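ok, trying the design again with the full structure, not the truncated one.
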């Protein structure tokens, strides 16, 4: 008994020491974060101060060199110009207010730049939803083809209304239309239908997808494009409906919400610092059961106060004539505030932004219906950007690491996941930037024509050299095979701090449950329609627009005054000394707002880790700090799908042999060139060797032959002779592969080695780089295939 007591005391002492060590490590981590923030801010300030001081000194020297008469003349001209610009800016803001009022009065319709036809209305469904399917009418001069792959674009429902994917000619819609593809747009009304849930929305989107398939029976399966929160909605749609096999594209979509980079992504701390889901539930109850999306828009603006509260208005003031159209076009979408049901916002926070369940395979769309992203069979393209501080690449991509054991499991499941990471474009730029539409989205549309010819696996898409200009520009595209370690490498500091978010998730659940049991009945009794209307009308995002419109006394007079100013406009030159001083002062004002933002974000991060990174909170979050159960890497080779593929290694013919040889080369090379993929796709669809091999069978062959090449390369080469028993068949198969690969002098050594091993096994002449293979020239029918492909 005495010995047992001594052991118990020793164990407690060890636990106390471990806790103390953990506390020390946490304090060291917070100190390191503080030092990192201080260093970053001070370095940035020093660089900015040096550049700004130099500009001010140059301006000061020019002022001293300028005589008083000239200075008075320049000052008078500047004051006239500044007054006129102030009037024009006020008029632009007045017009913004009028647009807002008119948009609200019209029921906040989509802000698409294209005409459209309404195809289906979710309000007519058995389970009513506020979603509709629109068919975009191609503008004059653009022809779409019914046999080309249709596109279904799902816009985000994150406070704003629909239209971000197509409110400019150079947009996702524009790119698809210029490619000749029919385009459909999923939009939603300003207010949800009573009792509407995300499960109902998913069922409506499924119905929309099926209708598009019905309308285009001769086209490939439709592509689904999801922007921001429309991205995870697209994954929900595909996971709940594995029969959806058309490619899906998710742009800037937050999926692994706990992920991010310390010092760069402060938005992920909001759940822990603002009280989890509770504030959203309270706001929805006070608003009559609907969550006001204006709250989300205000949060977005607060992330970058220098831009949101000063720079975008100063840009209008600096050049009102030039900036008016662009400013009003964007503000029409930005100022359209939409609502979600309490159940919808609750699910979103619990399963994504606070609870992070979707990424870890724990999300339930409704009772009895779990959502597993592994169930998706459609090829997935993920577009993210390092410049996106709302959905950084880690949040857009870490769901892949959380879902699959490794990249081999992606191949085993026959899945194709392609990701592309932009260097600098911001969150909204992913959807609305003209340069992004002309480059990244144009190439994504191009890739979706051939993606089904890509062997299963995890790839990074890179865009290189440009050919042509504008929407007709084309780039060299390469698909490089990646490992999970490549995705994890984007997390410079690792993912250990994600355990701190588990305590937030648990405390959020407890707070929401306590509120539901104790306070909610009282809040709902207190909330009235009049209170909801008052809260909406007094919301700062609406108030700032209504305060400058024709409904406000004196508002109409601003328009009359602006007309007089336009008729007598006296702009000054950009090199006017006072105009230059104004520009420097504007930069100073924006910079100090950015400094305040940086300090605030630093305090956000430090406070979060101080609250939730200590041993006590780690203990609280233990039940919610987990990863989904995944197959061990050693088990993957024994899965039934792998064993079945290996067992069929000696069965097949020319199609199996061609695809296997391409898979062997891809495994050796580690990448697929875009032009090779195009030749492969056209060959699969048009060559005599693949006659009668439909889309589903091709997908199955790509999956099986990929697994054979991956798990038993040597036997995969040896058994090619079993698939091609006669020399003519061997010549046809090898010649076709040579054409797809484009045999040239610059082929990589491992590719040459693989092709040489194939030829030795099939007893064909050696490979001759840069020349037409003799075996291919002798192959009956191959010249016809080649000429057909080259003509296309």
């Amino acid at each position: 008994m005495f010995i047992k007591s001594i052991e118990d005391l020793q164990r407690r002492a060890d636990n106390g020491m471990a806790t103390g060590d953990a506390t020390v490590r946490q304090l060291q981590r917070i100190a390191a974060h503080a030092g990192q923030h201080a260093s970053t801010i001070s370095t940035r300030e020093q660089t900015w101060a040096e550049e700004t001081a130099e500009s001010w000194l140059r301006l000061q020297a020019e002022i001293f060199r300028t005589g008083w008469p000239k200075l008075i003349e320049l000052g008078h001209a500047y004051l006239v110009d500044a007054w006129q610009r102030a009037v024009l800016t006020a008029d632009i803001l007045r017009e913004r207010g009028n647009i807002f009022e008119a948009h609200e009065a019209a029921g906040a319709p989509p802000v698409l730049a294209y005409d459209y036809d309404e195809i289906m209305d979710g309000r007519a469904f058995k389970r009513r939803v506020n979603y509709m399917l629109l068919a975009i009418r191609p503008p004059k001069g653009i022809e779409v083809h019914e046999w080309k792959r249709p596109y279904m674009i799902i816009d985000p429902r994150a406070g704003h209304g629909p239209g971000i994917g197509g409110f400019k000619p150079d947009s996702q819609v524009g790119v698809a239309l210029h490619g000749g593809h029919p385009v459909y747009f999923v939009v939603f009304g300003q207010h949800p239908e009573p009792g509407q849930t995300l499960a109902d929305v998913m069922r409506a989107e499924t119905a929309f997808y099926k209708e598009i398939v019905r309308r285009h029976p001769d086209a490939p399966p439709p592509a689904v494009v999801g922007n921001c929160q429309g991205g995870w909605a697209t994954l929900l749609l595909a996971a709940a409906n594995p029969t959806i096999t058309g490619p899906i594209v998710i742009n800037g979509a937050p999926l692994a919400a706990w992920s991010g980079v310390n010092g760069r992504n402060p938005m992920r701390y909001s759940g822990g610092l603002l009280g989890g889901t509770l504030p959203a539930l309270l706001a929805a109850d006070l608003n009559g059961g609907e969550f006001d999306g204006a709250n989300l828009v205000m949060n977005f603006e607060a992330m970058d106060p220098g831009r949101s509260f000063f720079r975008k208005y100063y840009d209008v003031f600096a050049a009102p004539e030039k900036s008016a159209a662009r400013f009003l076009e964007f503000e029409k979408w930005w100022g359209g505030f939409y609502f979600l049901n309490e159940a919808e916002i609750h699910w979103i926070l619990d399963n994504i932004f606070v609870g992070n369940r979707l990424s870890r395979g724990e999300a339930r769309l409704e009772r009895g219906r779990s959502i597993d992203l592994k169930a998706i069979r459609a090829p997935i393209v993920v577009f993210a950007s390092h410049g996106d501080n709302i959905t950084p690449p880690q949040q857009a991509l870490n769901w892949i690491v959380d879902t699959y054991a490794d990249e081999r499991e992606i191949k085993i499941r026959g899945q194709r996941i392609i990701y592309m990471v932009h260097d600098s474009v911001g969150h909204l730029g992913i959807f609305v930037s003209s340069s992004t539409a002309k480059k990244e989205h144009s190439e994504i549309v191009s890739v979706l024509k051939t993606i089904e010819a890509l062997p299963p696996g995890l790839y990074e898409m890179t865009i290189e050299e440009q050919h042509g200009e504008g929407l007709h520009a084309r780039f060299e595209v390469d698909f490089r095979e990646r490992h999970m370690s490549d995705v994890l490498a984007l997390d410079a500091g690792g993912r250990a701090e994600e355990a701190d978010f588990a305590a937030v998730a648990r405390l959020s659940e407890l707070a929401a449950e306590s509120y539901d049991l104790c306070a909610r009945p009282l809040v709902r009794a207190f909330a009235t329609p009049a209170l909801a209307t008052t809260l909406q009308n007094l919301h700062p995002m609406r108030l700032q627009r209504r305060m400058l419109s024709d409904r406000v006394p004196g508002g109409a007079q601003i328009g009359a005054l602006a007309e007089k100013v336009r008729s007598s406009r006296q702009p000054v030159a950009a090199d006017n000394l006072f105009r230059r001083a104004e520009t420097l002062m504007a930069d100073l004002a924006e910079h100090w707002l950015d400094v305040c933002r940086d300090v605030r974000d630093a305090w956000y991060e430090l406070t979060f880790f101080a609250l939730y990174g200590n041993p006590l909170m780690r203990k609280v979050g233990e039940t919610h700090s987990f990863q989904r159960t995944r197959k061990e890497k050693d088990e993957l080779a024994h899965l039934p799908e792998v064993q079945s593929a290996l067992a069929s290694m000696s069965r097949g013919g020319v199609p199996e042999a061609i695809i296997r040889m391409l898979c062997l080369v891809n495994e050796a090379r580690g990448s697929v060139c875009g032009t090779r993929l195009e030749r492969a796709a056209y060959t699969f669809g048009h060559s005599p060797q693949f006659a009668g091999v439909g889309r589903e069978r091709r997908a199955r062959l790509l999956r099986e032959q990929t697994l054979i090449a991956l798990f038993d390369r040597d036997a995969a080469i040896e058994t090619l002779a079993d698939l091609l028993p006669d020399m003519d068949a061997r010549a046809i198969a090898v010649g076709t592969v040579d054409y797809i690969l484009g045999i040239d002098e610059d082929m990589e050594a491992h590719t040459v080695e693989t092709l040489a091993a194939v030829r030795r096994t099939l007893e064909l002449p050696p490979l001759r780089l840069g020349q037409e293979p003799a075996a291919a020239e002798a192959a009956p029918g191959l010249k016809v295939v080649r000429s057909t492909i080259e003509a296309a």
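Keeping the full-length input from now on. The two ends are 87 Å apart (CA to CA).
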